[in-house]
Design brief:
- The structure is a single chain.
- This protein is mostly helical and about 240 residues long.
- The chain is built from twelve helices and no strands.
- The chain has helices at about 1-30, 45-50, 55-70, 70-85, 90-105, 110-130, 130-140, 145-155, 160-185, 190-200, 200-210, 225-230.
- It is globular, with a radius of gyration of 19 Å.
Length: about 240
């Protein structure tokens, strides 16, 4: 009887913990979470303007490039590193990851994109989901943190599972770019969802790559993405901030 009771308690505790982690992920990555992600296209607006992206397949290809060779590849690895440092209670390592993330930006607009969202995420998360470790980390950086690092640290401090965290963050990142494509290509809502579905294996592969990444050896080369971002800075009419 005691053994059965303890088993039920363990099951209840595990379910409760998993539910709490899931709730955090759904909340932190919801379009309703006020980080301003909807206002960025990561250069996609210029790609559409230049005729380089047309239709659903073009949007999928663009997002895949970002995830495989661009900021998505780097940011996922930085998220993992921040999560691990937070979990291990290694503030010096966490600070190094934050500094690296702030420097690892190819253009002014991609820097604005990640830092503004990170600052917003940090501010609202520290207020709505208080945690002493995260608060100390935010205070050391004046709440100016790149989005993946702020997210990874928050997930690590609050013990949200790593694999779920990185997949969820990448899925939200990809979905936001698809949403931008829906608005500017334009695509219908069904095509937008088909694009998001097509990106699932790409997101999963990017997450696995991030888990295996070594920041000392990490690198990427996506000059066209950077050129599109730089051209967007002077684009005459724009809907997005990047």
């Amino acid at each position: 009887m005691i053994t059965a009771t303890m088993a039920r308690m363990r099951t209840t505790m595990t379910t409760s913990t998993d539910s709490a982690a899931l709730y955090r992920l759904l909340t932190w990555l919801s379009p309703a979470y006020p980080v301003g992600a909807f206002s960025y296209s990561h250069g996609l607006e210029t790609a559409v303007e230049a005729g380089l992206v047309r239709g659903r397949e073009g949007v999928v290809s663009y997002v895949q490039t970002v995830l495989d060779h661009g900021a998505g590849h780097i940011d996922a690895a930085l998220l993992v590193a921040a999560w691990r440092a937070a979990q291990a209670d290694e503030p010096a390592v966490l600070d190094q990851v934050a500094q690296l993330a702030a420097a690892w930006r190819g253009t002014a607009e991609t820097a604005l994109e990640t830092m503004q969202q990170g600052t917003s995420f940090t501010s609202i998360t520290a207020t709505a989901w208080p945690d002493a470790g995260f608060a100390g980390f935010a205070a050391r950086h004046g709440r100016r943190l790149a989005h993946p690092v702020a997210f990874g640290a928050a997930a690590g401090f609050q013990r949200v599972p790593l694999l779920a965290s990185v997949i969820a963050w990448l899925a939200a990142f990809a979905a936001n770019l698809v949403s931008a494509g829906v608005r500017i290509v334009p695509l219908g809502q069904t095509d937008g969802q088909l694009a998001t579905a097509a990106l699932q294996p790409i997101v999963e592969a990017a997450a696995q790559a991030a888990l295996a990444a070594d920041l000392d050896d990490l690198g990427t080369a996506s000059p066209m993405l950077d050129l599109l971002s730089m051209r967007h800075e002077t684009q005459y009419t724009r809907l997005f901030r990047s």
